[in-house]
Amino acid sequence: MMSREHKKAAALREKLQILRSITHSHALSNTSIITDASEYIKELKQKVVRLNNEIACAEAALKQDPFPTVMVETLGHGFLINVFSDKSCPGLLVSILEAFDELGLNVLEATASCDDTFHLEAVGGENQVDEHVIKQAVLQTIRNCEISGDDQE
Description:
The chain has 4 helices and 4 strands. The protein is an alpha+beta fold. A hairpin with a 2-residue loop joins β1 (69-75) and β2. It is elongated.
């Protein structure tokens, strides 16, 4: 018959192996398994933030809000920017990416849709720029694009 301590140790090993498999960890030590699990949880939290932003942008689109929506969030040392406008104009994506470049933002990944409406989600690395400054730069870029688009009509 196993002692109580042996049962507890076996149960702990089993739980750590379950944690290892859930987090897709290849670690062997208990400390490394827990560290990997912590990193996995951080990744999941970032995904939740991203999905919440996508939901907010989709809700804004459903409301047919004539004003663009710009959300900027700091993620650890990086950032997440979501932009939605019910109107798209030629060159808007390029203009926004140029504004990011002028601010010194390093965009690591971006997805965009520029058909009738405009939606951009950009994820970037190290960011020393205030969220409000980024938001104002994007809004100004959208206004400039709308003004130049009106001039062409």
